[in-house]
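Z., the sequence and structure:
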Amino acid sequence: MESLVIPVIILAVVAAGVALAARAFGKRQASARQARSAPAPDSAELARLVAGKLSEDQHRKLYALIAQGQAMAAIKFYYESTGDGLRASRDAVGALAAHPQPYRSPEPGAAETEPDDDDTPQRFPYRYRAIASKGDVTREVSSNMLNDEIYGRIRTLARSGDTEAAATALTKHSDISLKQAREFIALLDD
């Protein structure tokens, strides 16, 4: 009888381990199924929102690229114009192609009621990390006053040649000096 106790204990431990693994695997599959069945964001609403980020010339050029069937060029143009991420740019161009939007000029009263992000930076509940590198030189800015939109505007300023305005905006939205901001912006030239 003593010779059977150890194998029975081992068998019970293995069975309990298999049962726990099967339960964890089942929960993981259920959460994956639930994530796949989550409703996708409304494409028409997305198109309306992203069309508002474009100037009249950008709007015209983007729709010209879409009409010519140059999806990759349209995504690249949107990415460079707005500074949104690559995935967000792809989704935005897809939504704009599926739901064409007319250009709407910004309302004059809206600029007076909304504070300008460059003048009054707000603090976000997370820290945003921006990294720029060229060759062996790498700089990082970490701040809870930055997000994708603000960093995109800073990159757009730097790429358009207005490096001083980009450096000033970066210092307003982070805790770095103007000299450090200029060094960071110099790495964004390409």
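Residues 66 and 138 are 36 Å apart (CA to CA). The chain has a mean pLDDT of 82.

Let me know what you think.
H.
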